[in-house]
Amino acid sequence: xxxxxxxxxxxxxxxxxxxxxxxxxxxxxxxxxxxxxxxxxxxxxxxxxxxxxxxxxxxxxxxxxxxxxxxxxxxxxxxxxxxxxxxxxxxxxxxxxxxxxxxxxxxxxxxxxxxxxxxxxxxxxxxxxxxxxxxxxxxxxxxxxxxxxxxxxxxxxxxxxxxxxxxxxxxxxxxxxxxxxxxxxxxxxxxxxxxxxxxxxxxxxxxxxxxxxxxxxxxxxxx
Length: 223
Description:
Shape: globular
Strand content: 25-35%
Radius of gyration: 17 Å
Distance between the termini: 27 Å
Number of helices: 7
């Protein structure tokens, strides 16, 4: 089942030599279950920090973040790790594949860590879904950029997360390959019925989302 998100009065700042810099100031955001949301804004506006907050990898200075029935601020490190392995998928711009593992190994590893049944079979099925059944035993260095990103998408979706986050998922791909990967991502999202949140500077990506918000000057602006 997809998961909704509620951010209430979130503030976040980072220390610098000249004093704290606000990333978010009393920001609130509602994401409906199953919704696709684009987060846009200039470089350095805190878009990635917002994803880190939604994933529980960053904690706000104040405010609450609810993902479904879970209040992330009330969970300790171990509980957050368990929650992420069960409910969250993340796709990075730079793939973050493990170079010493094959495509199959990269996709099955999260299932093995979580103790899921039949990790190999589920990973094979997911790689087939992204069109890489012929690349199961290939290592990241043997794959093109588009193929590596498809492995990353398979890894993010293999445990059927209810919330899927993407940080510039087509940013390191050429336009043609990026469009193919983007179409695949939205097709798989539709099948999985997850809630999809994408950080992007690419207008083509933002236009495919149902809603969008812009980050600027510590504020979230609905567009």
